[in-house]
Amino acid sequence: MPYEPVLLARIGKPNSAKLEGYRADGGYATFERALKEMQPAQVIDQVKNSGLRGRGGAGFPTGLKWTFLPKDHPGPIYLCINADESEPCTYNNRILMEKDPHQVIEGIMLACYAIKSRCAYFYVRYEYGDSYRSMQAAIDELYAAKLLGKNINGSGFDLDIVMHRGAGAYICGEETGLIESLEGKRAWPRIKPPFPAVEGAFRKPTIVNNVETMACVTQIMKRGVDWFKSLGVPPDPKNPRDAGSYGPKLYTLAGHVEKPVCVELPMGVTLRDLVEKHGGGVWKGRKAKAVNPGGLSMGFVDVNAPLKGSDGQTEYDIPLDFNGPGRVGCLGLGTAAVTVVDDQTSMVDVLHNVCQFFSHESCGQCTPCREGTGWMLKIVDRLRRGQGRKEDLDVLIDVADRIGIMPGTTICGLSDGAGWPVKTAIRKFRAEFEAAIKSGAKSQYAKSLDVVGAH
Amino acid sequence: MPTVYVNDKPVEIGNRKLNCVQAAELAGQFIPHYCWHEALSVVASCRMCLVEVGDVNPKDGVLTMQPKVVPGCQTPVRDGTHIVTGEYDKRDTSFPARPYDANYLKGGAPGTRAKKSQADTLEGLLINHPLDCPVCDKAGECKLQDFSFKYGRSESRMVDVKNTPPNKPHLSSKITLFTDRCIMCTRCVRFTREISGTAELMVNGRGHHEEIDTFPGRPLENKLAGNVVDLCPVGALGSKDFLYKQRVWYLKESNGVCSRCSTGCSTFVDTNKDIVYRLRARPNPEAQGHFMCDEGRYGYHFANSAERIQRPQVKADGVLKPAAWNVVTPQLKKTFTDAASASAKTVVGVLSPFLTVEEAFLYATYFKSLSADVRLAIGPVPVVGHDDTYPKDVKGNPVEPVKFVIRAEKCPNRRGVEAVIKHFQGSVPAFADVATESLTALWFVGGYPDKDQLAASLPANWKAPALVVAQDLFAGPITAAASFVLPATSNFEKAGTFVNHAGLAQTFDRAVRPPTEVRTELQVAFDLLGRKGLVQAAAIRAELAAAIPAFAHLATKELPANGVRFELATV
User: Fold this and answer.
1) Domains and CATH numbers, chain A
2) Is 0.90 exceeded by the ipTM?
3) Where does A258-299 have alpha helices with state H?
4) d(CA B8, CA A50)
5) Which stretches of chain B drop beneath a pLDDT of 50?
6) Domains, chain B, ranges and CATH?
7) C-beta atoms of B42 and A382 within 8 A
8) Of the candidates B177, B218, B271, B389, which lies 20 to 30 Å from B395 by C-alpha distance?
9) How far apart are CA B82 and CA B395, in angstroms?
10) Residue A453 has pLDDT above 60, yes or no
11) B50, A406: Cβ pair inside 8 Å?
């Protein structure tokens, strides 16, 4: 039986973005019930018990994050919604914001009620004009309907939601970078501790959550913990640190697929199923060579490499849950944005594109990332022009390995994400890189893209 | 007592709140750093101070080291913190190795991660650095040079074209930016935001195309701007005043005290062949902190001025003519002694607030030796405007807490000279009060570095007596009226002690020799008193400490570098 979408259930319905339409589908009943019948702590417990993990990329348990706030804090507490969806090929938040903003806002309202926040900031990237407008329209509707503002439904609960448009920087998706940007400063991620839950926006306790997480909160509060836990993958008993991957997830397909779509599936669909069944397979009848399981920064999967410990399967068969990509050397599930690279595309060109992106988006605060991403771009650019040297590959791997929050050399995770595609591409497709260096051939795209300039 | 282990060496930190860099320094272990500065906020972005740390679990006493490197500047230490630096292999092996956990040792010997990370950071910093040390002013005192030599690798793996952002000489009238040499530590940006508060500097661009810049139409012009040059660990920010004047390894550094206002900033005086080339702030928490103002920093030029009075002059037939010291001294002594014996009450010795306490003491001794009735007065105290406090807000209004003050009183030692005068005669008359009386003789011991400031602080109705002895750096209204003009020395040309606005007495060393025919004030006073032997400021200081109870603190031969604070009531 095919999976019946929940988060995307209302997409495509007439009036899906309107309050009227949302109300007709039972919208805000959950919030109103929670407001009347539940204590904030009960909402936190329900989200915590559902096992919901953040949909932004890192997969941190949402309910647990909420409990990090100081108890009985006298001053304001803020909720920041991270809608700076900048990971390449990711557009699952966008669909929710454009087509079903009220589902997201109800989640925000529930979350604010749970963490006792009276003000939520909605940080949306500049490029998402439609999302900004539809969200703003939805918020305006709610103020008009007195579902936002002072003393909502006579419960004594006040809530304001403030839309904030970013200026289009990848680093604003990092939670402390987002907070700095929200405060009107340069989006340089902060050093931690203190973590945002203790000292965040405007130096007050702050929770930063993703848009899709908020939509999940709405559904968890509406349908209950058991429904949520019936979907997805339970924790790996062999890994005591695994919190499981429950619930539905929006996967986006991009790159060389026939149908680049956003599909909602329970966690744990395999990469092969996703591409072949839901994406209509690789385009132009070609075969896949490499796949990005969750946004560029997660690294590459070699479609033809055998999967360790399982007969006949390849890396293409890994499940897309929070653990799956890690089994084949990728950083994690990330944003679940699957990008397919077909077998006629040169990995050197792919890597150049990747390096250009991260070099352009490095905020430039920490030396290893600022210089490392720039250096990797210069090397790959040279490879692409047919002037590579065989030692370049080792330099690339060395640089990619040493930058990031994991070795401890940077403040935020951007450079882990910059290094991961480089090292996975070279480690998994080394023969192709070596052949390219040996042939000395210039990439057919070498002229079309300039080395990234100042921004 | 809380104890921290640095490369196995235990060091007690007391109840201070320290980071790893500071704790390691206590243990005698230097951790290289660029972005961290004691007076500025922590950004932990240069990633040069990477260390390995671990803590002891207070419950079971087991030491667990973190498997990754952490920035030392950002990591606080507590009792039982273990710090392993990249120089662990050069540690003092007399201390037994700490019980590092097996999991940690699996990643290599202690210190290998930190060492590699630091070398990697340096490799990164040099990727877009032009390596133009031969033409760079900073070469010789450049932290990028020093650390690359000590912690870096000897060869570069970078074969690609480097970024070449344009230089920015328009950054400020006093400061230029060699953009390509910058390592983006952002110390300068933080200084203008946190200390001066004027926030002229910013970071522009992103990633490896980042540059330090100013906002359009708002150049870096504030009275503390020169500090960004001191703060810059590399050759990016250059002082136009010093640029291409000297290679720094020719410079001799001596400890000075700034004479341009009563804050009395501790300075380093950089000289070569008896010429002062540069002043830098010498960190002194007792005096001014880490910084100094531009008035002081660029205010040394008077000492090198060609307009200075270079030799003694005696007025004959209404014209001042140069004379030799061996002629002038006896003649002067006789003339002044005669004046004092004729009418001691109308003879005044004026001691300027630019004199050291040693000089003031010897001159006062001399004047009082002529007659107890000879009066002492303090010279004009130049005051310009009001105390100027920093930081400021965007509109230029002062902001609390105050981090730096440029004082309105533009002299270094009013309090010291007043204390000396008070000791000799109880009261301290101002020059303005005595100068309007009808006097028979006036000895004006000046040393004013700014002749306009002196002229402005003279009372309009002062009357020059028949005999005026003027000892000063520059010709002015007083030297014009003088029968004897003696050259004075700048504060760089003598050793001595200044007492600042808060009663802090700081001694300083002689940085340069005075011009050939100039004798220091101490030497002149020695000659007048008929004393024999070498003139040593330290010996006079000991004499002074014994004679005047207020200065008893100065009795120790070597004063601490940060100075001695007086009981305010006694000075």
Assistant:
1) 19-230 (3.40.50.11540), 245-270+291-342 (3.10.20.600), 347-439 (1.20.1440.230)
2) yes
3) 271-273
4) 47
5) 567-571
6) 3-120 (3.10.20), 129-304 (3.30.70.20), 313-382+416-570 (3.40.50.740)
7) no
8) B177
9) 46
10) no
11) no
